[in-house]
Amino acid sequence: MKKLFTLGILCVLLVTAVSAIADIARSKPSPETPKIVLHTNLTIVTDSKLWDGRLQISQSSLQELRAALANTPGNESMAQSIAHSSTRTMLAGLFMFLSLSFAGVWLARSVQTRGQKMVAALLVGTAVIGAAAIIARANAGPPGSYYWKKLPQNLSSGAPTRGGIDIEIVPDSDEMRGIKLILPIKQ
Fold first, then answer.
1. What residues have CB less than 8 Å from 31, skipping those under 6 apart?
2. Which element (helix H / strand E) includes 90?
3. From first to last of its 187 residues, what are the pLDDT tens digits of the chain?
4. How many independent structural domains does the chain possess?
5. Which value, to the nearest 10 degrees, does the dihedral of the CA atoms of residues 153, 159, 163, 168 take?
6. Containing domain of residue 52, as a range?
7. For the chain, how far is it from start to end, CA to CA, in angstroms?
8. Which DSSP symbol is given to 52?
9. Which member of 16, 73, 86, 108 has the greatest number of CB atoms within 10 A?
10. pTM metric for this prediction
11. Is 113 a domain residue?
């Protein structure tokens, strides 16, 4: 009976391995050339008092952009919208907490009295490692102006620069038409 069971498990593993090899990724479609949907003005200024970049969009430019985007199809899938939600992160944290709690209670009840100290030490160690991971992951890091400080050198060398940016909608005025990018470059 044991030989038959082992042979059955081996056959199941073999079938799964063969079907896994057949799962070849599809070729990626060729990228399309970008389509221009809106033409507007862009003003770039620096402000040494800011910590993050700021993108100011006038209300009229925003309405023109909305009208242009209404004609283009949306391509964000359901999986992408779920992956970028804060609810997903909160639920993952809640389930991790519940799993650690239930596992601790289960281990404490199932282990002999002398093993309870080891289980308690293991759970405390796991909680400390989890807290350290949360602190390291939630660390705010350097201010936003740190990422923008190499912009002049990167522009002259043709290298990209990435940094945080806040988007504001501002009312139309004589000085503000189109889009204005304010960068926090310290002098």
1. none
2. helix 86-110
3. 677 777 677 666 555 554 444 445 556 666 777 777 778 888 888 888 888 888 999 888 888 888 887 776 655 565 666 566 667 767 777 787 778 777 777 766 776 666 667 777 777 888 788 777 777 766 656 776 777 788 888 888 988 888 888 889 888 887 777 888 888 887 6
4. 1
5. 90
6. 38-69+85-183
7. 80
8. S
9. 108
10. 0.47
11. yes
Contact 43, 155 (CB under 8 A): no
- Look up residue 3 and give its two tokens: 């030989």
Does 106 map to a domain?
yes
Dihedral (CA of 100, 105, 111, 114) sign: positive
Q: Is residue 109 part of a domain?
A: yes
- Between β-strands 165-170 and 53-58, what pairing exists: parallel, antiparallel or unpaired? parallel
23/103 Cα distance (integer angstroms): 36
Domain-located, residue 16: no
Instruction: Give the residue carrying structure tokens 């059955």.
Output: 8
Chain-centre distance for alpha carbon 165: 16
Structure tokens at 8: 């059955």
Q: Coil, helix or strand for 56?
A: strand
From residue 33, alpha-carbon distances to 30, 36, 67, 75 in Å are 9, 10, 21, 16
